[in-house]
Specification:
This protein is an all-alpha fold and 540 residues long. Helices cover 78% and strands 0% of the residues. It contains 20 helices and no strands. Helix 5 packs antiparallel against helix 6, helix 8 runs antiparallel to helix 11 and helix 13 crosses helix 16. The longest helix has 37 residues. The protein is globular.
Length: 540
């Protein structure tokens, strides 16, 4: 494709992303699934198309998406659920690859265990970008979102290590279990170290990044710096990016200015919107190209291969979660071990929801695309086109099948995040912060006199008024369930009235500008103040 064709494709892709987002907002359907369907439709049309380049995706697209997700994650919550995170990101990934490998060796003609493990490793890790995109729009509870985020810490490092070992074995290099384990350990530990180095390097720049534009530039380049450093020393770039994001996201509130935080948040929301949209379009667009590679395969070869891949992907995850969470707790309670239910154990409903959140995505396609065309002796790599097709089918089945039904499942399970609990916690934190401010004012008032004392008194009056408002909200939120619906209506009415007053202020400012009484520069300053005020309204 020439430069003009690439530009035309990008313009069309952004237009489709915007349109699909508009449809998703009005229908409640997941954006990821709709964009994948749009990509399939685009791929069927004549005209220019872009082939998935695994190096480009892993280097330029995945790092910012993972970093943005990590910034919104909780390092403390992931630490609390570390056992489950490691179970999903290491144990489940390895078992998935081995079971698919065994199924290929048993049922697919011409396939060896190593060939099957290669495709198994590619489809084993759920894509956190795809899974989180679906989970957040479905109202999944915060704890399960944290587990999905944490699962992305190690699963890609595990899968890519298993894939490289399988490809080397299938290509004639041979297999060594100690070497494979050592490679994984080096990749994981090295990725953690590389991520920590970049994170604390960013922290060292905090005095230079106080200004919003500089802070944005540093933030945008950080995931690429982490990925490149890790790849240079041959460790997990994906893990390095996630660790960097977790540390920076945990530490940044201490040194990032409010203005920088507002602007950086807006920039990352735009980056997520565009990159996620392009990724899902790209996934769907690969279907026609991959189908062309199946012409030389018999149906009796393709069907068992797809059945094994998709079957293991869909069935093993719930079985693993039941084995590691529900059954131990049930046995402990039945036989009276004295320990009772594990503090981090999942309930049956949570296991069901997390089982259906194992959405595969572009990382699986990028991984399988790295399989070489030939072996070390120059022969074609066994069943390569079939492996790519099986991976794409697994991605499409999870993206479309699970993606389109996940919201319905969450509603049926009654697992929506509790808005009233979150609202109460936020207002308790608000009240606590105002109490701390009043204490600080009292300390300052003992040292000041004259005008400063008068200003401190005015500020104390404002904070006291704010505290009374927060405490009033808390009183309403702590009432019994019979009045909770009424409280919700009161809050919605409050937000409606406040939005109406802000809109009236905007209209008056525009009248001043149109009459020549207020310059555009002054209008933008005052509009920004109103915008910040309005942005706070959706949070109760």
């Amino acid at each position: 494709m020439n430069a003009e064709a690439v530009l035309l494709f990008l313009v069309a892709a952004v237009a489709v992303v915007v349109l699909v987002r508009w449809v998703a907002d009005r229908t409640g359907l997941p954006v990821a699934a709709l964009l994948t369907l749009a990509g399939i439709g685009y791929g069927m049309l004549p005209g220019p198309s872009i082939t998935l380049n695994p190096s480009f995706v892993l280097t330029f697209v995945i790092p910012p998406l993972l970093y943005s997700a990590a910034l919104d994650s909780s390092l403390l919550a992931i630490r609390r659920n570390l056992a489950t995170v490691i179970s999903l990101s290491v144990g489940l990934v390895v078992l998935t690859a081995l079971l698919i490998g065994a199924g290929f060796a048993w049922l697919v003609g011409g396939a060896t265990l190593a060939v099957g493990v290669a495709v198994g490793a590619a489809v084993a890790p759920p894509d956190p970008v795809a899974a989180l995109g679906i989970a957040r729009t479905s109202g999944l509870p915060h704890r399960l979102v944290t587990l999905i985020q944490g699962e992305g810490l190690l699963n890609d490092a595990t899968a890519l290590t298993v894939l490289s070992v399988a490809v080397a074995t299938a290509g004639g290099v041979g297999f060594s279990a100690p070497a494979a384990f050592g490679q994984f350990l080096l990749s994981a530990v090295g990725g953690i170290v590389a991520g920590a180095v970049v994170a604390y390097g960013v922290r060292a720049l905090r005095h230079l990044a106080r200004e919003p534009l500089t802070a944005n530039a540093v933030s945008l380049i950080t995931p690429y710096a982490a990925y490149l450093l890790a790849e240079r020393v041959h460790v997990s770039g994906v893990l390095a990016v996630v660790v960097t994001g977790l540390i920076v996201g945990h530490d940044a509130p201490r040194w990032v200015s409010g203005a920088s935080r507002l602007q950086t948040g807006a920039v990352w929301r735009l980056a997520d919107f565009l990159l996620e949209g392009l990724v899902f379009l790209l996934i769907g667009q690969q279907l026609p190209r991959v189908l062309e590679g199946l012409r030389d395969y018999e149906v009796t070869t393709v069907v068992p291969a797809v059945a094994v891949t998709v079957g293991v992907v869909l069935l093993l995850r719930p079985a693993w979660l039941l084995l590691t969470h529900t059954m131990p707790s049930a046995l402990s309670a039945r036989f009276g071990s004295g320990r009772g239910r594990r503090p981090d154990a999942l309930t049956g409903r949570e296991v069901t929801a997390l089982s259906w959140a194992g959405t595969r995505g572009v990382i699986s396609l990028a991984a399988i695309s790295t399989v070489p065309l030939t072996t070390t002796d120059g022969a074609p790599f066994p069943l390569r086109d079939l492996l790519v097709f099986c991976t794409l089918v697994a991605v499409l089945v999870t993206l479309l099948g699970q993606g389109l039904t996940f919201g319905w499942l969450i509603r049926r399970l009654g697992l929506h995040a509790s808005e009233s609990d979150q609202a109460r916690l936020r207002n308790e934190a608000r009240a606590a912060s105002v109490h701390a401010a009043l204490v600080r004012l009292d300390e300052m008032g003992e040292e000041e006199s004259g005008n400063d004392a008068r200003l401190i008194g005015l500020m104390r009056d404002r904070l006291s008024h704010r505290l009374r408002r927060y405490e009033g909200r808390l009183d309403s939120l702590r009432t019994n369930s019979a009045t909770s619906a009424q409280s919700s209506v009161v809050y919605e009415e409050e937000f409606r009235i406040r939005r109406a007053t802000i809109e009236a202020q905007r209209e008056e400012l525009l009248r001043w500008r149109d009459a020549g009484r207020l310059p555009d520069a002054g209008l933008r300053v005052l509009e920004r103040e109103l915008d910040h005020e309005e942005r706070l309204l959706p949070q109760r």
